[in-house]
């Protein structure tokens, strides 16, 4: 917050408290010329108005609220850029990376600052850490049959993975379906955990410059034929020869290679869509897919549980 806005907020806040105090003092003054307790010579519906002062309990309570407000503003952040005498803050601000967050946590400890978010994280770790430790010592195959472990894994999945893969884990355009048995890098427990820990960077190169428009059309025809689609026979035969450039990743039979994350082109499961137009777009301009690493954000123990949940999704198919 700039100095101007800091001063502005402070003046408005303190001015409001001062205004409330002056208003109270003004209301306590007898401005009527009538002694307190006497008749005000005004009645309505048979009710006579008496010049009574504000109730003492109400006045004292009002003073207490004003004093409490000043104590609160002195102890906690609230007056512009003033940090408060207790050194309390809700969280470490202006953090842009996990490394900066860790540094800020350590710095706050050294300076004796009370960071609410850090304290809540520490309390949660103390409470739930033993639970994650227990599950981390068990194989993923075992956890995939443990209902309580799967509930925890599902919640972690919904919080961290559903934005891309969907709440039902069935994926969407450009994001794999995790409930079938089609895996780009492998669907074993070890491979799933490896993917979650380290992330993936997939790259399908653009072939327009190498093949040209005609060559792209031919390769598209051959690629579509691999999954049983009806295509122009001449284009298919010409595309088969050009497909040798693609075989380095997808294999000579087009069944893919999990070592590279190259998809199987023969099973009619398409990450970006199976229309001729979509496949043409992929060949012309390439694709770049990124699966983020969760090693630092979740940690290995939580990743272990998410891996068990993801692994369980495809075991009934």
Automatic annotation (TrEMBL):
Species of the source: Fluctibacter halophilus
Main location: membrane
Subunit structure: Component of the cbb3-type cytochrome c oxidase.
Start and end residues of each Cytochrome c domain: 148-227, 234-314
Family note: Belongs to the CcoP / FixP family.
Keyword Transmembrane helix: yes
Segments crossing the lipid bilayer: 6-24, 60-88
Purpose of the protein: C-type cytochrome. Part of the cbb3-type cytochrome c oxidase complex.
Localization terms from the record: Cell inner membrane
Record-given protein name: Cbb3-type cytochrome c oxidase subunit
The keyword NADP is annotated on this UniProt entry: no
Keywords: Cell inner membrane, Cell membrane, Electron transport, Heme, Hydrogen ion transport, Ion transport, Iron, Membrane, Metal-binding, Oxidoreductase, Repeat, Respiratory chain, Transmembrane, Transmembrane helix, Transport
Cofactor list: heme c
Record note on cofactor: Binds 2 heme C groups per subunit.
Cited InterPro entries: CcoP_N (IPR032858), CcoP_N_sf (IPR038414), Cyt_c-like_dom (IPR009056), Cyt_c-like_dom_sf (IPR036909), Cyt_C_IC (IPR008168), Cyt_c_oxidase_cbb3_su3 (IPR004678), Cytochrome_c_Oxidase_Subunit (IPR050597)
Pathway(s) where this gene product acts: Energy metabolism; oxidative phosphorylation
